């Protein structure tokens, strides 16, 4: 049985039986240590459907190369190893990161579900899962002039950023229309509106 991992940006082949490393000369010591700990991880015998689910939920923070590798894998044990390696590396600086991440997923599912769509798949759910709980939030129900909206503010990101979610249809389905965080959707018209809302 084989699995793929990515030491130094190149995926390498590992034989899981007795953890024999095929290309041992290119694999760092910490990679070998990681393999030794694999049998103790939650992923070692995790059912494939759960591994796939956790992968889908983590795609917000997984790079495109790793996503492509995972989606090309047929072996469930290889999927387990890729997910284990991903979180093993993420948790080197924060041992509780994985637990916190999936706790956010659970919270999003409980609070941001829309029309049968799982909460983590919605715009508010994605932002919550990726960036955590906002420092503060402002919400307003519909009025004669405005659709319902929510403003989420994160003081610790880039010196302070905002997300504007609008329920344009009035069915509790909030869409992210603009954010001041780099890399997120930005709409000057909505951003001007956002500034007016914050000022008032």
């Amino acid at each position: 049985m084989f699995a793929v991992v990515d030491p130094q940006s190149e995926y390498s082949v590992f034989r899981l039986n007795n953890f024999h490393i095929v290309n041992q000369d290119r694999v760092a010591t910490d990679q070998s240590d990681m393999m030794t700990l694999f049998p103790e991880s939650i992923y070692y015998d995790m059912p494939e459907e759960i591994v796939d689910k956790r992968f889908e939920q983590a795609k917000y923070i997984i790079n495109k190369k790793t996503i492509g590798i995972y989606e090309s894998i047929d072996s469930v044990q290889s999927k387990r190893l890729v997910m284990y390696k991903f979180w093993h590396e993420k948790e080197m600086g924060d041992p509780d990161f994985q637990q916190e991440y999936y706790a956010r997923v659970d919270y999003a599912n409980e609070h941001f579900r829309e029309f049968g769509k799982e909460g983590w798949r919605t715009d508010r759910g994605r932002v919550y899962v990726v960036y955590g709980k906002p420092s503060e939030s402002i919400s307003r129900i519909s009025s004669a002039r405005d659709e319902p909206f929510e403003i989420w503010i994160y003081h610790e990101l880039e010196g302070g950023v905002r997300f504007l979610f609008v329920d344009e249809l009035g069915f509790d389905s909030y869409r992210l229309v603009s954010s001041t965080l780099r890399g997120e959707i930005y709409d000057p018209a909505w951003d001007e509106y956002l500034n007016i809302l914050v000022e008032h």
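Residues 76-90 form the longest helix (15 residues). The beta strands are 2-5, 12-15, 20-21, 136-140, 149-154, 161-166, 175-179.
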